[in-house]
Amino acid sequence: MDSAPVGANPCVAGAFPPTIPIVVKTATVVHGIASLRRRGLTSLRVGGRLVSVNVGGVRSVDRDGTPATTAILKQPVSGRVSVSGVRIAGDAQADLSVHGGPDRVAYAYASEDTRWWEVRLGRRLEPGSFGENLTTAGVDVTGALIGERWRVGSAIFEVAQPRGPCWKLGMRMGDPAFPREFREAGRPGAYLRLVEVGDIAARDPVKVVGVPEGSLSIAEVARIHSRERNRAAELLDLDGLSDDWKEWARKRVRS
């Protein structure tokens, strides 16, 4: 896939040089990484780079005539940003029942998926358009396994769950029906927990430093949640999956 120009924002990394020492097309790299992950090659070090770090505060918005709050309007920031506890410095969440917390310290979305949406929607989408904190390049976010660990800058994150879109994504994209379209597209992005505190910035490498054996990918977990709910029991003992998604699986199995 050809790279679209990033634009003039100085907070966003520019060109995306290859970070995997194999001269192949992007699609081949992505599928190859996913295959190697699923084969349990835990010593494999692959990854890409951070295009931008995006943060935002809580804002008041109008939802069909009713006051509401959201922090989905993220913007790229310059310089190094610290990550500790359950938050990225300068970032906030409006509804802590479904956002934030130890299993959702950061949300990552791939620039390759953003470019796919640009073609589908016929318009330019800047980093942070999906409310993501980490816009990546060269990272197979959808193929990442639950429990997989990434070193970003000096911090280490662990993949915890896919995103389940809500009305706020529809507001952000200017289309109330967009959350359903987003869910059906199978490009959910990944929520990350923090394993090791550190600081991050645009252009930092993103390295996969740990891959669990016998796990499921972000794409597979999202598919179980939305389309293959008869497989919910597979999520009950999935190491590294967030507590909220395990609770959903427990309720589904009981029903």
> Mean pLDDT across all residues, rounded?
86
Task: Give the tally of structural domains.
Answer: 1
Percent strand equals: 25-35%
* H/E element order: HEEEEEEEHEEEHHEEEHH
Largest sheet: 7 strands, mixed, barrel
Number of helical runs? Answer: 6
- The total of beta strands comes to 13
Shape: globular
List the uncertain runs.
1-10, 14-32, 39-45
Q: What strand line-up does the widest sheet have?
A: 1-8-7-11-10-9-13
CATH architecture: Beta Barrel
What is the level 1 CATH name?
A: Mainly Beta
Portion of residues within helices: 10-25%
Name the CATH homologous superfamily.
PK beta-barrel domain-like
Q: Short summary of the structure?
A:
This protein is of the alpha+beta class. The chain has a single domain (26-254), classed as PK beta-barrel domain-like (M1 Pyruvate Kinase, Domain 3, Beta Barrel), CATH 2.40.33.
Describe it.
The protein is α+β, with helices and mostly antiparallel strands and 255 residues long. Helix content is 24%, strand content 26%. It has one domain: PK beta-barrel domain-like (M1 Pyruvate Kinase, Domain 3, Beta Barrel), CATH 2.40.33.20. The strands form three sheets. Strands 1-8-7-11-10-9-13 form a seven-stranded mixed β-barrel. Strands 6-5-12 form a three-stranded antiparallel β-sheet, with no helix packed on it.
